Amino acid sequence: MSKDVIIKVENLCKLYGKNKAEATELMKRGADKDTVYKKTGVTVALWDVSFEVERGKIFVIIGLSGSGKSTLIRCLNLLTKPTSGKIYFEGEDIQKFSKQQILNYRRNKISMVFQNFGLMSHRNVLNNVAYGLEVKNVPRQLRENKAREMIALVGLDGWEEQAISNLSGGMKQRVGLARALASDPDVLLMDEPFSALDPLVRREMQFELLSIQSKLEKTIIFITHDINEAFKLGDTVAIMRDGKIIQIDTPERMSARPADDYVREFIESADKTQILTAKHVMIRPKCLVKPKDMPSQAIREMGANDVSTAYVVDDKMKFLGVITIDDAILARDKNLPMPSLIKTDVYTCHEDTILSEILSIAAKSKYPLAVLDSQGKLKGIISKAAVLSSL
Amino acid sequence: MKDYLLKFPDAWQFDVNDVIDNGIKAFSRNHREFFNIIKKGVVFSIHGIKDFLSFIPWWLFILIIVLIGCRVSRKKHVGILYGAMLFFIGSAGLWDHMLQTLSIIIASVVLSVLLGFPIGILLALKKDAERIVRPILDLMQTMPTFVYLIPAVMLFGVGITPALMATTIYAIVPMIRLTSHGIDQVDKEVLEAATAFGSTTLQTLVKVQIPQALPTIMTGVNQTIMMAMSMVVTCAIIGAEGLGMEILVATNRTEMGKALMPGISIVFIAVILDRITQGLVGDRERMPNE
Fold it and tell me: What pTM value is reported for the model?
């Protein structure tokens, strides 16, 4: 079966500055980016980039900041005009498009998700998602129906009328994703979409993206600086450095045969960034009591929060132990002082403890783990379920 | 020491006063028809506004301001305070003067917004235009008002027409600046998003840039109103009736008591207009919908 190539990029270059001809000459003679900048004042953002993207696949471009990956992805929908080189979409040279053709291309074929979401704060969720349809004059009823469908797809149903400012980072990017999917494009450009999110939400979003992808089978061009993300999502991964692509391969082959030391180092850094610690998975304890509180007060607190254990802290949040609802009732009925009933045999861990270590402790513990900082203050708690689900 | 080193030499000094005066006079004589039409238009509109304001009974006027005050501040006592301020102006015998002053301010603010808003947008979108217009704006704000009051009087005679012109020249600047600034500071990624989804330049402007800039633009309207307020006494010098004229007359006769009441009235009007327009800005920011 022959490959179904949807986007093809040939010898793409992008230079910023006045003296482009001289810079091009220098680059051709093999000068590096810094030398060219010093001699001509021209910044080489992309140099001789070529690749093909197959329909329905996820193509990940990875590189450090300044490697040209954002410039590259912006060339694909002509937000940035390339200096030289060709970009073909389904065999057509997009740089030969007329103004109207470019509009149609952006409206129907290719859409984009942004690192900082690029949402319009004056519109609610529904109208943000419908934006792409609105600019191509889809009637209101139709575009709102489509937008609602997309909002449901990314799991935000019920949030249609909310203001963007009321959403968390992860939810904002779901809106960004729904907006990009609403015009039913063939290609989705994603410019570090999950970089602004915290690690747990990022994992959730990666999972979400893969599950949406399995339903819709879009072509996705995904930019990241996180090699774990690249390997997790990418059918093909291209690694960039100083405006050039160093290696394009499947994740498996790339880790087996890195093209050079730079790629090797990049891959080795993978395991280090993967580390999650206690503070990433802990939640705030719902119910806190103080030793001087009355037992009846502790019972009320636990009842109101629907928990059977309360965490006992002193005035400075220093962790003392836990008290169960049974013990609290006992204390109230027998009129015993609270401090005598505090259980101190609770497993605790430091907020920087690595998750894999927590796993063994969590398995033994009867109550959710107490997470402490270096001064012994209670920062949060971790349930067994939280540890297991994040691994 | 030579004389010309100590004192700026007479031979190098020039005098264009007569040339300019005669030029403007001739210009005004040759285009009398044209300036008369403008004058008639201005007088007609300002009298129209004044007549409309006078048509509203004083108690209804106060009631409307109380209601608007309650609405934008979300506090009952604030609205009532505004009402009390207006009541004070009325009981000081200055109600009619206030309406006169208000009508000039309303006319110049409307004119400033109508002209300043498109100019501001143009400046934000065309960087070449900005390079030319920005120094002109600086000039308009720093040039002492009297300097352009004189030609305005020469062209339109004394009265409300030159007053409106002078007030507008002075008050339009923040409208232009803040409109332009508001559009400039729209988040780059939001603009990219608009483009990436296939918006035309006009769609981006109307659906993204202007709504995103609206809080800043509203601040511009607020500033324009405040600037127009500050011109009230200056305008009285060229014969615009109203609170300013009362102050001017009192100043000429050094009657402190007579100047104080219109002075306080101007402060009250400024406070009410400022708080209400600022409240509208806040409202906009709170509203998530289109």
Answer: 0.76
CA-based diameter of chain B, in Å?
77
> Which domains are assigned to chain B?
19-55+92-286 (1.10.3720.10)
- Domain A278-390 carries which CATH code? 3.10.580.10
To the question of domain A5-273 being in CATH 3.40.50.300, the answer is yes
Chain A CB contacts of B196 under 8 Å are 77, 79, 106, 111-112, 189
Query: Residue B203: which of A74, A114, A135 has the nearest Cβ?
Result: A135
pLDDT band, very low/low/confident/very high, at B73 (cuts 50, 70, 90): confident
| CB-based contact A135 B192, cutoff 8 Å | no
pLDDT digits (tens, 9 = 90+) for B130-159: 889 989 998 888 888 888 888 888 888 888
Q: Which of A110, A121, A133, A135 to mutate to test the interface with B (most CBs of B within 10 A)?
A: A135
pLDDT tens per residue, range A185-210: 999 999 999 988 888 888 889 988 99
Q: Please name the residue of chain A whose CA is at the shortest distance from the CA of residue B206.
A: A135
Of A105, A118, A165, the CB nearest to B190: A118
